[in-house]
Design goal:
The chain has 60 residues and is an all-alpha fold. It has one domain. It contains three helices and no strands. Helix 1 packs across helix 3 and helix 2 packs across helix 3. The longest helix has 14 residues. The chain is globular.
């Protein structure tokens, strides 16, 4: 399991808010794949971690 720092979580949350078109409710696996495809997120990040990042970004 990948360890994400709080700073990286907040940076990814801001990136999601600004750059991705996320609909609520959102599927963490889709967001995870998009972040990995764009090269902004390591592939070792789990769906659970992406779910936490989405909560920080304001998506539930």
């Amino acid at each position: 399991m990948s360890c994400l720092t709080r700073q990286l979580q907040h940076k990814l949350a801001r990136y999601i808010q600004k750059k991705l078109n996320v609909e609520s409710p959102c599927d963490p696996s889709v967001v995870r794949d998009e972040l990995i495809n764009r090269g902004v997120c390591p592939c070792s990040v789990t769906e659970g971690q992406v779910r936490q990042i989405l909560e920080v970004a304001g998506y539930k």
